[in-house]
Amino acid sequence: MAQPSNIFPDHAIADPAPFLPMSRAEMERLGWDECDVVLVTGDAYVDHPSFGMAVIGRLLEARGFRVGIIAQPDWNGPEPFRALGRPRLFFGVTAGNMDSMVNRYTSDRRLRHDDNYTPGGEGGRRPDRAVIVYAQRCREAFKDVPVVLGGIEASLRRVAHFDIWSEKVRRSVLLDAKADLLVFGNAEGAIVEIARRAAAGESPGEMTGIRGTARVGKAVSEGETAVRLPSYEQVRDDPEQYALASGLLHRESNPLNARPLVQRHGDRDLWLEPPPLPLATDDLDRVYELPYARAPHPSYGGARIPAWEMIRFSVAIMRGCFGGCSFCSITEHEGRIVQSRSQDSILREIEAVRDRTAGFTGTISDLGGPTANMWRLGCTDARAQRLCRRPSCVHPAICKWLGTDHTPLIGLYRAARKVPGVKTVAIGSGVRYDLAVLSPAYVDELVGHHVGGYLKIAPEHTEDGPLARMMKPGIGAFERFRKMFDDAARRAGKKLYLIPYFIAAHPGTTDQDMLNLALWLKRNGFKPDQVQTFLPSPMSLATAMYHSGRDPLRPGSGPVFTAKGLKQRRLHKAFLRYHDPENWPMLREALAGMGRADLIGPGRQHLVPRGRR
Question: What is the pTM of this model?
Answer without folding.
Answer: 0.95
